[in-house]
Write a structure and sequence with these properties.
By secondary structure, the protein is mainly β. The protein folds into two domains: 1-73, Pectate Lyase C-like (3 Solenoid); 98-190, E3 ubiquitin-protein ligase SopA (Pectate Lyase C-like, 3 Solenoid). It is built from one helix and eleven strands, in the order βββββββββββα. The protein has one helix at residues 179-182, and strands spanning 4-7, 10-12, 24-27, 30-32, 45-47, 50-52, 65-67, 69-72, 91-94, 112-114, 132-134. The strands form two sheets. It has a seven-stranded parallel sheet, with no helix packed on it. It has a four-stranded parallel sheet with strand order 1-3-5-7, with no helix packed on it. The N and C termini lie far apart (68 Å).
């Protein structure tokens, strides 16, 4: 039996939380207002797909492939991106809820997070070179042994990261955001 291959298909308002999607490759598909919460998405390949206003909370993504995918206005609470297939992993996130998600040891070079909530997201040992955190709330986000070279934090807020245990060469910060680099010293400002 040939592997399932679906392209140029729109999925609107589908509840895929109980049955999930069939294992296969989905190329250039649009998923709009779909519910993937707690679903089994393991071993599925998404290539050049767009996910708009979808709920992926706590979905299982073991060896799931996301290549050139766009997440817009979606909820991805507690998603373990480190379980995904890391080969050619590339995604962008716009107005998404990514609280409690984990990007442990992922190569996210040049990834864009635009107006996202990333409360307590884990970026430990990840490569975030050139990453853009535009207008993102990073309250409680974890940065340990993270490569942040040339990353852009100028409009990000509520972050706290230790420059002594992270690589931040040429990273960009706003003057008001510098407090996030000094928080471990318990310095008080006026």
């Amino acid at each position: 039996m040939d592997p399932l291959f679906i392209e140029d298909t729109d999925y609107k308002g589908k509840d895929l939380s109980s049955g999930g999607l069939s294992v296969g490759t989905y190329e250039n598909c649009n998923f709009i207002n779909c519910n993937f919460a707690n679903s089994q998405l393991s071993n599925i390949n998404f290539m050049e797909c767009r996910f708009e206003n979808c709920d992926f909370s706590m979905a299982k993504t073991i060896l799931t492939s996301f290549q050139d995918c766009i997440f817009e206005g979606s909820k991805l609470l507690g998603l373990h991106f480190e379980d995904c297939n890391q080969f050619l992993f590339s995604a962008s996130f716009n107005h998404c809820l990514l609280n409690l998600s984990s990007f442990y040891q992922l190569n996210l070079k040049d990834t864009k997070f635009l107006s996202c909530s990333l409360h307590e997201a884990d970026f430990t040992e990840s490569n975030l070179t050139g990453m853009i955190f535009e207008n993102c709330d990073l309250a409680g986000a974890i940065f340990e042994n993270t490569k942040l070279e040339k990353a852009d934090f100028r409009t990000a807020y509520n972050y706290s990261l230790d420059p002594e245990i992270n690589q931040i060469k040429k990273a960009r910060f706003s003057i008001t955001g510098l407090i996030g680099l000094l928080s471990k010293y318990d310095i008080e400002t006026n």
